């Protein structure tokens, strides 16, 4: 989504229902903000990202039995959970036992990064809602996330026919960065990457009350509900700024991935090949 939407006001329910009923969104009962990263055009003519392979979402903790069946029916047998243990304890949202699906703990941050002091500083940045604050936060994700991102990328390298899903709590920040890395590696343009990121504005709307209820338990947000809503924004312009940050500070996606995950040029070539298909044989 682009335009003047501030992200602070609730969206029209009919509009949300309509958008969520269409690709790239996928409906899995008990899970919010799920979409397929397939069908995006790449810089290579007649080549698109592979549908039915890489999915992003919010947390799976509330998935229902019907949701599990839907997950498995999509061929998803692996879920990468980007949350950390203190975060799951704080929100009483543990890693779920999903029959037939391997849930892989893949935390971006270490437990010590959830000290009250560090958490308060992150919340203060999120509360401003500014692009500058989000770039500080997203730099922290990039600086800490190499091992987690490497785990997901190695799955892509080694298991091209094994669909997977990755998620954090809201499916916005850590999840959005993983999605951006995957899409950028195969030369999806910045507009489509930013558009995908901005779709979280709609994708998380059904869980808006639950997320705000959690945030309002934090002293910073309890006294300022608007600050809590600013934390939830997923503006198109924020992702464009992140992609510039990735280029300017980290040398671009390839340099970042090789430096922070230890993957090689050969690995990246295989990963790219496994993430795309010709349009004539689009899955």
Protein traits:
283 residues; Protein-Tyrosine Phosphatase, Chain A; five-stranded mixed sheet; two-stranded antiparallel sheet; 15 helices
Description:
- The chain is an alpha/beta fold.
- The protein has a single domain (13-281), classed as Protein tyrosine phosphatase superfamily (Protein-Tyrosine Phosphatase, Chain A).
- Helix content is 50%, strand content 8%.
- The protein contains 15 helices and seven strands.
- It has a five-stranded mixed beta sheet with strand order 1-3-6-4-5, covered by helices on one side. A two-stranded antiparallel sheet has the order 2-7.
- Helix 3 links the parallel strand 4 (78-81) and strand 5 (102-105).
- Helix 4 (116-128) packs across helix 12 and helix 5 crosses helix 13 (236-250).
- The longest helix is centred in the last third of the chain and has 15 residues, at 236-250.
- The two termini are 26 Å apart.
- The model has no long low-confidence stretch (mean pLDDT 92).
């Amino acid at each position: 989504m682009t335009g003047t939407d501030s992200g602070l006001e609730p969206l029209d329910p009919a509009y949300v229902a309509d958008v969520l009923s269409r690709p790239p969104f996928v409906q899995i009962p008990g899970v919010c903000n799920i979409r397929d990263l397939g069908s995006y055009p790449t810089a290579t003519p007649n080549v698109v990202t592979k549908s039915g392979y890489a999915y992003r979402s919010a947390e799976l903790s509330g998935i229902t039995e019907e949701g599990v069946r839907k997950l498995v029916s999509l061929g998803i047998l692996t879920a990468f959970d980007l949350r950390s243990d203190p975060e799951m304890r704080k929100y009483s949202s543990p890693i779920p036992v999903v029959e037939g699906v391997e849930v892989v703990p893949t935390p971006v941050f270490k437990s010590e990064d959830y000290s009250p002091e560090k958490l308060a500083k992150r919340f203060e940045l999120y509360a401003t809602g500014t692009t500058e604050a989000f770039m500080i936060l997203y730099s922290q994700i990039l600086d800490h996330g190499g091992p987690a991102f490497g785990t997901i990328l190695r799955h892509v390298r080694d298991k091209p026919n094994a669909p997977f899903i990755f998620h954090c709590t809201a499916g916005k920040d850590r999840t959005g960065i993983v999605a951006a890395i995957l899409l950028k590696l195969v030369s999806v343009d910045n507009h489509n990457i930013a558009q995908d990121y901005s779709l979280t504005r709609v994708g998380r709307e059904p869980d808006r009350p639950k997320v705000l209820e959690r945030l309002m338990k934090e002293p910073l947000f309890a006294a300022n509900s608007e600050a809590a809503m600013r934390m939830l924004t997923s503006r198109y312009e924020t992702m464009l700024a992140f992609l510039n940050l990735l280029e300017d500070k980290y040398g671009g996606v390839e340099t970042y991935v090789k430096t922070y995950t230890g993957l090689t040029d050969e690995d990246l070539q295989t990963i790219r090949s496994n993430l795309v298909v010709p349009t004539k044989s689009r899955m």
